[in-house]
Amino acid sequence: SVCKIRRDERPCTKPSRTASVSGMTALRPMPQQASQKCGNAMAYNALWTSDAQHDLDVAVSYLTEGVGMPTAASKLLNDIESQIDTPRTFPKAHERVRDGLLATRGYRKAMADPYLVLYLVDTEHSEVVITNIVHGSRGYAHLV
Q1: What does the DSSP 8-state code read for residue 101?
Q2: How far is Cα 75 from Cα 88, in angstroms, rounded to an integer?
Q3: In this structure, which of 6, 31, 64, 142 has its CB flanked by the most CB atoms within 10 Å?
């Protein structure tokens, strides 16, 4: 299920702790993404910023209510979850974004066609911070 929040509201899950990456506050991991051991390596926690949660909520709402395609919304959620699983085990598996400034800040992108999942890797705390979910046809440099 999608955590429905507005930018001015508190998240529907209380953070067990917050992390700050490049000045952004990230929320605790979504329940299905708690840290776990993967083989010999410890999986990174996946943290969602409120912007990323909002982006996902908007995308799912558009697909289900705006164009009446709940199956596409379900597929998007599955694709995004799958794309987030990869950097949880291999945090630098996805390429850096092409925008030079964002690339130097460490932003990476995963494809959940037609959306991009933008994230940062915090190796010190073993966390992957999902910062934004954007449609691939939109520019994203101004969002972060």
Answers
A1: H
A2: 20
A3: 64
Residue 142 neighbours by CB under 8 Å, 6+ apart = none
**Burial (CB count within 10 angstroms: exposed 0-12, middle 13-18, buried 19+), residue 8:** exposed
Asked if 109 and 102 touch (Cβ cutoff 8 Å), the reply is: no
Q: Confidence band (pLDDT; 50, 70, 90) for 112?
A: very high
Provide the pLDDT for residue 144: 64
Would the pLDDT of 12 be above 50? no
CB atoms within 10 A of CB 59: 23
pLDDT in tens, 15-31: 333 444 444 444 434 43
